[in-house]
Specification:
Radius of gyration of chain A: 21 Å
CATH class of the largest domain in chain A: Mainly Alpha
CATH topology of the largest domain in chain A: Butyryl-CoA Dehydrogenase, subunit A, domain 3
Distance between the termini of chain A: 32 Å
Oligomer: homotetramer
Shape of chain A: globular
Largest sheet of chain A: 4 strands, antiparallel
CATH architecture of the largest domain in chain A: Up-down Bundle
């Protein structure tokens, strides 16, 4: 047992931090202003492409991608990637610069692991190169999608084509002008056992019958330029080769996809909370009321102390989960993955809320990333499974472990 | 002691509810769609004016206005008004229909209580008629405005005019096209004792030198069409007659303004929480996971039970505060007013958060009012004094009461 | 609606307070010392009987007893009794002085309402006179007794006698030397519908076959001299006349018993929390750390402010429940009774915990009543139904109310 | 970074667990019965001495003692000792069997590190051998002892003797019949700078003038046979050689003593919480209400899931603190030590409270260790510094770290 980062990890952290200090910090205010100006809705921040190029050149590219899949990545373990994801999480918009954004990361892993050569060539390569982006169409408005067996979208083989009908929402990234392909989860055969009915198919975003109904808001955020799309699929036809890994494999792929993806989210959430902590610490020096600086108030120190305790605990739990996944695989690590899914977004929501309180009006406005991070953290208590589902399963697993159930 | 509403109060509640059922419920979806369409930014919902007219005819007008000030109102006590504010709070956008919106209500009370005849004629009358709206310019970006003595805007008498310089933000309603006048808090004489330096002046929104810099967002919401403005005042000149109640009276007026205004906010927050409770109850019937309807889950019932307990307690506390204000005045009621300021927004934030969790993605999106209400509740933990300031003062008062401090 | 106590209520509160100031405050330290000396285990505090006599003479006797049952009481409504119960709750050991202790109060109500004349003469009269005390034998160690249908004790008619077999625990008061009779809940006929199987019988404590196995501790408290008994009933025989209200009426009686009893508990809990609040306020003046008096710390003021908010809300909720019970009966008031059952003990536990933290070592020791009150509050989150059962039922009821379930 | 225990650590854990399974589990009920029988007050459990002998023979002795001090110990690092402390924490009474009980462990470390040869020979050797026990007299009833500069006990040199006067309380272990010596903290010179006034002297428990006034209770528990003593020191005289490390070194020694001691406490708290978790898991299989087994209730699973998340996080945080202390020393680790001081007892209190709720009446009674563990956890939120003091300092340190304060 050893709680120090390895030399390799420390060096990568420093490299990433230097890149950010040199190339990103100087234009951060520019980005904040761009984002909060409604004239720029659905436009991509102009400097992103040039920064992507620089990151690629610096070897800070596809950092998330495990060794076994990637020549285009440094081939990090989850444990090595985790602190980098945390650093990117502090400035959430920059993940894309390093080609480490959701849902692309998960989609690339799916294609790398389950895709055939043709699929890889057509979609994985441009994704790995950062030339296109992608969407993941799973959640549906009409059913509780936290139980994946509820999904109703149908994928029916007719001749050489799959015909897809259904309605999806919360398809994050679906509104991005670079988004060219979606992985769609649906049911190919409802007569099969519950966990063998689902399949995933690749659907180009410009397919006939695929219609973006509207962007959804998270609190009031549209999350431009990616957005969260509500999409209708009406008799969308794709070649039968677009099935991923075969019919009935949808549930299995989904399970495999969620583990590492969640580690990424959780480390980013740790980074967002860390951002909030640093902001509130700085604020305590700037303001005073009733003749005292904020930092002199014991109640403010308590908020900060609690935040630090909670961040550090969530960080350790997530790193421990990463280590377990690396060593024993996602299945063996399922309980601790459930734990971080429960802990990280709740922790981040609480810490950011505290920071908002100390920053006052500034904290809820567009003048910091706090309000946006709050919305992300809140959303992540629901996205790929609400807290309650994870607690339901973790509780059961725990009872089994300590009893003879 | 008696916990039943009076007959008069019940009748008014029924009348208001009937009006809403008849005139507002049928167009609610239309309003939700209007609001969430970015094309309509800064536009007023077209049917508002006609609904205001209907409400006026029905005698549901200026409900907030106490007997002593108002011919144009039913002249209710705080205790009588409270359940009506709760009802309006369930559909927050409709307060304006009954001319009961902040910050107009507080501004009308200030003018009714402290304004001279000319001020009343010019500004109070059109406000009471719902012909114009108004803003309250107090909070400043550079200082912790929760301590009103920090305020830096200067109001300097030069000849027959006051010259105003300063920067204000969170001027709610300031972007509304109907907003014609602002009450501005600033300092007329920094050589006076701390609580006698402040004054309030009336400043027409079209004054030269008054510039709206930008709308602020609250968790991504612009709160169109009212908005929250950041405003700069550069050598703005108003006639010296525009001073309200005399120089050095700013702090006193502010104190008087906050009490009842907060009762209004708190009852609206109770209404918003009640809306969230009803929504989540209904949702439990619609959804199922893992073979069980939501309402069968004990954890979901717990959330609902806790929400109900917290709503009912906050409701009683706010009603009790209203009763105390009616009987003994704002000063005598200051401790219980501090209590509701602490309790109501925190309660509402928690209940709405629970509802979001049960509604899932729908709960954070534009498809219900939940996310917007969350933002309002969160903001109200800061607006006219953060939780911490109220706890600081209430704690001190409590210690004095039970000891010999 | 009116939040002021009536003149009658205020007078009674003053009378009770005067009695306490005159007769009880001077001997409080003596009682605290008596209680915490292990030599006095199971001994009754010697001055109790003389104080009972004084209270009876002062008309402060059987205050809990509703008008319809009592000549030996002032005949108060629940709403009138509530503030008196709160006052007694601040010094929990004194309830007995006014013949207002659990479980006697509930037992007297059962006998007054459901007992026949012979039962009343034999047991109710001496209870009303404070000559004897009583126990209520419901909870069983082997089953989850929060679901009363789980109870296993058998009550079998054999000739002219009922033969009782079973094991009970948490029979509060069972170890008191004055405890002469128990009301025992058991099943007379398991072939009946679930809620008609139970009956209640009167069992003298000196019955052959009734054996007190041991006193139970609550945290480390034995709660001498009353105690919480674990009792075995082995072929205990009582005349068939000892059945209360008839066979199969046990569940119905239990339901009727719980409502008002809980109001008593809840108001006492409000009193205990109020005691804790006052203690912590006083403490803030006595202590200092790092150069500051405790009352100057904003974090301490926050604890006090939150405590006050929570106490006042729970007080209002309990008073509102009392009012509802008086006006509409226990059945109609069941939801708000569930609410106070959930709210009051949790509130008291939290407030007392805060007070302990401010009092430090003294707060957990025998030098104040805090630790004992904490244990009582904690126990009351379980006694006659854990929080979870009330939330389960309240949640269901709420869902039914706001949906079409 | 690596989250697996080392082979050495795993072997020690297995060895300790085997010892417990073989020698302690079979007599656990006997111990529980012995403890809860008031006849045995202040008696030592008869089998302790024989178990100590067995543990010594098995090499499971003085496990806490670092390599540099101990021949009589396996010489473990904090990180290696931590999981053993957790295992002992699950059955708190057994720490003494392995000579790992507070306050002896801290006292032995003080003597090993700061004692001279004569002091070591007279007191450290028998302590290391488990022949005697010891007390640590620091806290005083009259002042807030969390600020050590408040301490008032005087230690005055008169000729060849120190004369000690003062009153101490919460001297844990002071009532144990084996307790032969106390380390007393007091002031030797109030004219020195604030942190150089304090000194520590060794005082035999049978010194003339040292009088145990009474045992203190913790939530009703006397914690026999060790107890928590209130002690008066009246002109107690000890040879001047009894000073530890020299006059004015008291504060420095205290600082050094607290770090590792707290790691021990925190790991024991993790163990206590783990015990509670396992107990509640088992309980969910035994009980049913309203036709469902406890483990089927989603609310119960949530409690268990949350408990597991919180335990695992506190465990990792404490292990990380141990690692930091081993590598960089107590001073460098002060922030993370403050974190575990805040986190561990609060976590344990919460988890044990949840377990009590699921176990019902049994959970608060003497039938499990839960209530006792609750009292310990609650007490540890106060002992050597309340939560608030640690948050005050941690908050300050955090602000300094992320700002230029």
């Amino acid at each position: 047992m050893n709680f120090n980062y390895t030399q390799k990890s420390i060096e990568l952290q420093q490299k990433l931090t230097s890149f950010i200090d040199e190339h990103i910090v100087p234009i951060e205010q520019e980005h904040l202003d761009f984002q909060s100006d409604s004239k720029n809705l659905w436009k991509r921040f102009p400097k992103i492409e040039e920064l992507k190029q620089k990151a690629k050149e610096a070897g800070l590219w596809n950092l998330f991608l495990p060794k076994e899949y990637g020549e285009l990545s440094p081939g990090l373990t989850n444990l090595e990637y985790a602190p980098l994801a945390e650093i990117m999480g502090k400035k959430i918009w920059i993940s894309e610069i390093f080609n480490c954004s959701a849902p692309d990361t998960g989609n690339m892993e799916v294609l790398a692991k389950y895709g055939n050569e043709a699929q890889k060539k057509e979609w994985l390569t441009p994704l790995l190169n950062g030339e296109i982006r992608s969407a993941f169409l799973m959640t549906e408005p009409q059913v509780a999608s936290s139980d994946a067996t509820n999904i109703e979208t149908s994928i029916v083989l007719e001749g050489d084509e799959y015909v897809i009908n259904g309605r999806k929402w919360w398809s994050s990234g679906g509104l991005d002008s670079l988004c060219k392909v979606a992985i769609v989860m649906g049911k190919t055969d409802v007569s099969k056992p519950r966990h063998l009915q689902q399949s995933m198919v690749l659907v180009p975003m410009n397919s006939k019958g695929l219609k973006i109904l509207r962007p959804l808001t998270v609190f009031g955020f549209l999350d431009s330029p990616e957005g969260h799309a509500e999409i209708v699929l009406e008799n969308v036809r794709v070649p039968k080769e677009n099935i991923i890994f075969g019919e009935g494999k949808g549930f299995e792929i989904a399970q495999g996809r969620l583990g590492p993806g969640r580690i990424h989210h959780c480390m980013r959430l740790v980074g967002m909370a860390q951002y909030a902590l640093e902001l509130m610490c700085q604020r305590t020096l700037e303001r005073e009321t009733f003749g005292k600086k904020f930092y002199e108030y014991s109640s403010i120190r308590q908020e900060i102390a609690k935040a630090q305790c909670n961040i550090e605990q969530a960080r350790l739990l997530t790193l421990s989960a990463a280590d377990k996944m690396d060593k024993f695989g996602n299945k063996e690590a399922k309980d601790i993955i459930a734990m971080i899914k429960i802990v990280a977004p709740n922790m981040a929501q609480k810490v950011i809320d505290s920071a908002m309180q100390i920053l006052g009006g500034k904290g809820v406005s567009q003048d910091t990333y706090l309000a946006h991070y709050f919305a992300i953290a809140r959303m992540l208590r629901l996205a790929d499974g609400p807290d309650e589902v994870h607690m339901y399963q973790l509780g059961k697993s725990c009872i089994q472990k300590y009893s003879n159930l």
